[in-house]
Structure formats: C-alpha cells, structure tokens
Amino acid sequence: MVGSEIQAVLSKTLWAAEPTLNSILNHALAGGKGLRPTLVLLCARFGMHDTLEVRQVAAAIELIHLASLIHDDVLDGATIRRNLPALHCVYGTVPAILTGDYLFATAFNLLTDSKKAVLKTVTEAIRSMCSGEIRQLTSGSPNVEAYFNYIGQKTAVLFSAACRCGAILCRLKRSQQINLARFGWHLGLAYQIIDDYLDLFGSPRLMGKPNRQDLTRGIITLPVLRFLERAPNAEDWQVKIQRGLKPAEIEELVRAARELNCDIETADVAREQVTLALEALDRLPPNPVQEELVLLALKILSPLNHADPAEEPAEEEELLRKGPGLLENNLTCR
C-alpha cells in the first residue's frame, strides 16, 4: 500500500470540489503497492534531502504510474484493475482518458519546484513508456530480445527513474545515481517478468485481476516464448495464437508449458534480475537504507513462492460488483 506520507500528498493534491471528479479520482487511487514512490523515499535516504520535496516527487511518480495504468486499460480493453472494475468500465472511456491526463498534469505540477534533473529524468521515462507501447503495437514476430526491450520501456524505466530521482534529491554523485538507476532497472524487469509469470501460471486472487489475459489478447510474454522455443509443435501453436486461442487451448498450453519447465525457467530469470539489482546496490557506499532496499527486492520475488494455480479463478462478474454504482447505473465498458 502507498505509505501514509505519500497518501497525504496525494489526497491534498487531488482533492476536488466537484463530486463526480472526486469519485473518479478516489477510484483511480484505490489499492496499489506503492513500490515506485517507496523507491524514491528509500533512495533519497542515501544523503541529506528536503523531506517535502522528496515526498512530492514520490507522489508525482505514483501519479504517472496510475495515469499509465488507466490509459493501458483503455488500450487493452482490460476490465479489472486491483480487484476493482477498470476505471473506463465504471465511468466510460472518455472520462478515463481525461482522468489519466489529469493525473499526468497533476504530477508535473508537483515537479515544478523540484530540480531540473528530476524533471528531465521523469520526462525521459514517460517518453520511453510511450515509445514502448507504440513499438508493441507495431512490432512483428515476438522474440526474447524484443520482449526485454518492451518490458524495459513499459515497466523498468519508471522503477529506474524513481531510484534515480531519489539519488538526485539527496545529491549523490553521478556514478552513484547510475548504480541506483541500474538497481531500479533490474528490479523493474524482475517485477514485470513475475507479473507475466503470474498471469499465465498464477491465480486471479494473487494478481488482483483475471489471469491468462495476455494470451487471450495474443500478447506473447517470456514463459510463452520459452514454450514456443521448446514445444515440438510450436508452429501449430503460433498459428493458434495468431488466430486467437480458445479457453480450452489456453489451459492446454499452460499445462504443456509446465511440463516443459517454462514456469521454473521464467521464475529463474526473474531471480537473476533481482541478483543483478542487488549487485548494482553493492556498488554504493555502505548505508543502512541498503538493507531496506534488499528486503524490498526480495519481497518482489515472494509471489513466486505463493502462486496457487489450483485455486479457482474469481469470477469477473463478482469483481465487477465492487465497482461503485456499476450495476445501478447499468454502465458497461465502452
């Protein structure tokens, strides 16, 4: 969950007198792990810093993340986010897009009084996130290299920016900023790989959203790429994926991928990325906050130990009922 100090900044910054906007913003802020703002807070503790400035930058990073999720859900047609109906399913597509824009604008308002290097780091991260999505929409045949490029731009770049912003705010040397940024980069890669692992092999309860969504939309992630490398009938599966998999075919693919140890190999790749993150952290001067960053990195790996594929998937209809006024207003995703 987002820490109380960041939640206070968000609540103050996003409060709106207009009831509908306030309701939309409260829905957008619900849930979340708060990893990215936590990275800003922790990395700033490597040196002296302005507490208020650090909190505002951390809040801005969280708002940018939330805005990107709202826009992604519209693009992907996702219906569930954080165990709640996606924003566009409750309030409509146009209000959702505008809410994402509103959060971006609010984030930059929080950054106006911060250091120029912070603003440059954040804007470069957003540009990378957008270009990654464009590349994904226009890419050809997927491969492992393209996958890592995509998740780097989609996820790792904002983790990295969060760490670098914290380093900038406590005035670390450039080489130390780079090492903290590398820590965030590899941590972000690990986080996305685990997210993709859980989408294929995990349970909706653990994900906070329906699983198998990537395959349903024809998105090829690392465990599926490994499966296509090893499966004797890989060409047949590629044809099926391109035309759209049926639910029974998805279950068949998941079983076959497990038999080929694609789940184990994907988990190992995530662990390797965390190892690289910790190696970057070790290059920094000793500081008590390093222990907290190590614990955070290990916590990111913890879902691999608790994935429960045998659990019955939660019904989307039940999750949708958690949306405020969804059934009463007879709203649908549009």
Automatic annotation (TrEMBL):
Pfam family, one: polyprenyl_synt
Keywords: Magnesium, Metal-binding, Transferase
Cofactor needs: Mg(2+)
InterPro entries, sorted: Isoprenoid_synthase_dom_sf, Polyprenyl_synt, Polyprenyl_synt_CS
SUPFAM superfamilies in alphabetical order: Terpenoid synthases
Enzymatic class: transferase
Bilayer-spanning residue ranges: none
GO biological process: isoprenoid biosynthetic process
Cross-referenced Gene3D superfamilies: Farnesyl Diphosphate Synthase
EC number, as in UniProt: 2.5.1.30
Family recorded in the similarity comment: Belongs to the FPP/GGPP synthase family.
Protein name in UniProt: Heptaprenyl diphosphate synthase component 2
Gene: hepT_1
